[in-house]
Backbone:
């Protein structure tokens, strides 16, 4: 039964991607901000539902910034390419992603349509350019989310965080909003749906669509304010609260 259900979900995803491409590439750029946020949240939930994933919110996201206010800098642990959809289904944000994603057929166009900020981690001056983009976006009142681990983990722990991009919060005095995501099956945490380096994206997707009673829990943690601290100090606090939420040292 799980096999047949997985095939059906896989076909639904393939059918949905061209529609999302048109929506992101041609409709999103012409949409006003409030309507854009509603559409991103709606379609993020629909995409996850198409894969058989429920999304469960624990805690509460803050209200979207009012005109003239700075956006939030969101941090999230990184388990899968679905993490961003899980967060976006509740709180629309621009996310920082590796530059290769922007070159993927169809998916790259979708990523650009949802205002992704692309980063080339192998190019030091590129990091400075990304920080400038993040700071500009935050000052305009848009939210930005990034994965400070820099890579995916199985989801049962928090890898060491990189402090570089915390500088965007220092420079703008933006409030940091930590978030942790957990993947579960039958209500219990699982690493089966993680996108780690030893499997392909298609194998990961197959694991997801064939997992029974699959869900993603999105837990919103207390915000962190700069209060004159540097990026290393902010990174240390974020690591502490996110590790505690995951039940890891």
Residues:
């Amino acid at each position: 039964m799980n096999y047949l259900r997985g095939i059906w979900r896989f076909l639904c995803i393939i059918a949905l991607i061209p529609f999302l491409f048109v929506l992101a590439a041609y409709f999103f750029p012409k949409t006003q901000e409030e309507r854009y946020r509603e559409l991103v949240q709606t379609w993020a939930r629909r995409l996850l539902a198409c894969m058989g994933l429920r999304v469960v919110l624990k805690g509460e996201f803050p209200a979207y910034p009012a005109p003239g206010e700075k956006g939030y800098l969101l941090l999230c642990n990184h388990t899968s390419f679905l993490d961003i959809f899980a967060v976006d289904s509740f709180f629309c944000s621009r996310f920082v992603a590796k530059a290769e994603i922007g070159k993927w057929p169809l998916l790259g166009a979708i990523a650009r349509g949802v205002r992704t900020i692309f980063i080339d981690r192998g190019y030091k001056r590129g990091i400075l350019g990304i920080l400038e983009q993040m700071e500009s976006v935050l000052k305009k009142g848009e939210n930005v989310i990034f994965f400070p681990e820099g890579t995916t983990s199985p989801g049962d722990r928090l890898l060491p965080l990189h402090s570089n991009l915390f500088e965007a919060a220092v420079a703008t005095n933006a409030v940091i909003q930590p978030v942790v995501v957990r993947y579960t099956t039958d209500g219990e945490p699982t690493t089966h749906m993680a996108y780690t380096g030893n499997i392909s994206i298609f194998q990961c997707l197959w694991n997801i669509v064939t997992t029974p009673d699959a869900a993603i829990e999105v837990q919103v943690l207390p915000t962190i304010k700069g209060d004159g601290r540097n990026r290393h100090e902010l990174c240390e606090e974020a690591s502490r609260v996110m590790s505690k939420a995951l039940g890891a040292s």
